[in-house]
């Protein structure tokens, strides 16, 4: 196959020790789980389109569709042009325990389990290494030092390139970084999920750790495409999300309407404005922040990548702050049982 040059998107480094990646990454979860039925052909086409556009970071979890998502990425990379395949980086979360019925029963961060999870992921991905590896949630029964230490051993053995961490608070972030270099913290961050600004982002800045921000459109809630009368498909977990419930949904979509007015004045979409806001927080917070966009279709991918062309000046940012001030969202970002698993919220 003839090699070719791919377009260059802006890049950001994941922390002081992490890799240089495209300024926007592709979160692949929705292609396999939690949003109802997905289209395999369109999913692979979307991954190919992302790679073709210059996206280098593909984010997944070994528990997304019980391994389905890793197999999907394997297929997409095998069928992609060599140049795209060679520059693609995989970011993998592990540790969630599942039932046959699809339920979640906790997390396992024991060193032996870490290495077991990694072995299966390498097989499903069809690769000899994982670029960034992290436990999805802290296992409360295992010190974070032991979990990170096990990933560090995988790095030493050449099976993992960089260590990440997910949804942890500032104290846990410091404990993890004392064991081994941490490339990035993956955590929810958006216009309506800003609690990390108080302690977690300053800790990341202090420690030289980057951030991969998921939920930048709050699972479509602030994308500009979600309507008050929309019926969610069977299996769509947003049906259990407090922010999508009853009066909470109406209040949150009122915020979106205010954001829409700002977006229209700039000639861009609501989604592009929301993603551009997250991109703008990197320089403001002194941390390299890479938004992960969960596009499942090529048209949504194209829209999201358009946010890289949106410039928000000080007046724009002030207007957005007035329209959607910190703490304005109605409802928690997860149901109570899942919030309890978030070290970042403790």
Give the ordered list of helices and strands.
Answer: EEEHEHHEEEHEHEHEHEHHEHHH
Terminus-to-terminus distance: 51 Å
Query: Helix tally?
Result: 12
Question: Which ranges are low-confidence, i.e. pLDDT below 50, for 5 or more consecutive residues?
Answer: none
Task: Report the mean per-residue pLDDT as an integer.
Answer: 94
Which percent bin holds the helix content?
A: 25-40%
What can you see in these coordinates?
The protein is of the alpha/beta class. The chain has helices spanning 40-53, 68-78, 82-87, 111-125, 144-157, 170-179, 200-207, 246-266, 270-285, 298-305, 314-323, 336-339, and strands at 11-13, 20-22, 25-27, 57-61, 89-94, 96-98, 104-107, 130-135, 160-166, 184-188, 210-214, 289-293. The protein has 12 helices and 12 strands. The strands form 3 sheets. It has an 8-stranded parallel barrel with strand order 3-4-5-8-9-10-11-12, surrounded by 5 helices. Strands 1-2 form a two-stranded antiparallel sheet. Helix 5 (144-157) packs parallel to helix 6, helix 6 packs parallel to helix 7 and helix 8 (246-266) packs across helix 9. It is globular and about 55 Å long. 45% of the residues are buried.
